[in-house]
Amino acid sequence: MTELVSSPKAKRPEFRNINALHDLPGYRLPIAGIVSILHRVSGALLFLLMPFIIWMFDTSISSEISFARFTAVFNVGVGFLPGWFVKLVALAIIWAFLHHFVAGLRYLVMDISHKLVTKEFGRSSAQVTLVISLTLTAALAAKLFGLY
Amino acid sequence: MAVNYGAHRVTTGAHYGIRDWLAQRVTAALMALFTLVVLFEVIFSKGPLGYDTWAHIFSGECMKFLTLAAILALLYHAWIGIRDIWMDYIKPVSVRLCLHVFSIVWLVGCAGWAIRVLWRV
Questions:
Q1: What is this model's ipTM?
Q2: Interval A67-110: pLDDT, tens
Q3: Top-level CATH class of B18-118?
Q4: What is the pTM of this model?
Q5: Chain B: closest CA distance from residue A110 (Å)
Q6: What residues does each domain of chain B span?
Q7: Residue A95 class from Cβ within 10 Å (0-12 exposed, 13-18 middle, 19+ buried)?
Q8: How far is B6 from chain A (nearest CA, A)?
Q9: What is the interface size between A and B, counted as CB pairs within 8 Å?
Q10: Is residue A89 included in any domain, yes or no?
Q11: Nearest CA in chain A to B84
Q12: Closest partner CB to B117 (pick from A43, A62, A105)
């Protein structure tokens, strides 16, 4: 008697009714999925930081005096918040905007043509999205913190 | 089909899928255009970017027109996006309704502030 020996394959994990604490840390999200969730995270961040964005618009544009206050907040800080912290918050906005912008263009392109909605394009365009948004963020971060 | 009237009527959510789906894309395209115009103006402005150059960008009537449209587009775009987040993660209708109201107040307040700022230039 011979027995059919099947190669012992590790059982692939099944994810049902995903729990954020138990399942997500071990869940290998494809890169398109990472871009997708970051699109949501960056959108929520922009929503929450909207008063700060409008405050920047307000002080930078209302008068020369307020413009001076605007630059001072970034250089010397405001209240108990140091300048580098304000710059860090601004950098969060810069990243969120750039990611939301580039990933959003990607979605618009995918909505225009069904031919572009393939596994390959989803993967490659997601990589391009991350490279563009992160490179631009790094460049603007260097500028913001006065590296050049 | 699920009952959606009387006591079982769904009181929160997007009741008009394709319209908001399309609106989110149209408003996104408008804001992308606005971004490119501002970027173009900043890059091709002469001299260092001080108050005068920066404020001058928003002083013209055309730019006010476009900026106002972009602010209103942002208001609607963010409302659809944030509402989608609440609908995905927040299940109790009472909590969701409160968050919807908070989002509307937050967004309308911000839009009003931004519009007031725009007319100071």
A1: 0.87
A2: 999 999 999 998 899 999 999 999 999 999 999 999 999 999 99
A3: mainly alpha
A4: 0.87
A5: 12
A6: 18-118
A7: buried
A8: 30
A9: 56
A10: yes
A11: A40
A12: A62
